[in-house]
């Protein structure tokens, strides 16, 4: 059974289960915009859910380009979303 922890998303605290995918945390929090398309500026979010499309890239603990669907929650994570231009 997973234990609960708190992570931050864009500086806001969010409760999450350790081992859950970041995408699941975003969906549960009803947060769909994870980044902006670098060319058109359109919002992007979870799409394939299996690491193929790169639409769910976020910054985790200062490391950009992390796919949220393949990344598991661990205590104290700092996640940033938003424009990538």
Automatic annotation (TrEMBL):
GO MF annotation list: iron-sulfur cluster binding; oxidoreductase activity
SUPFAM superfamilies associated with the record: 2Fe-2S ferredoxin-like
Aminoacyl-tRNA synthetase among keywords: no
Keyword Magnesium on entry: no
Keywords: Oxidoreductase
UniProt-recorded name of the protein: (2Fe-2S)-binding protein
Organism: Actinomadura geliboluensis
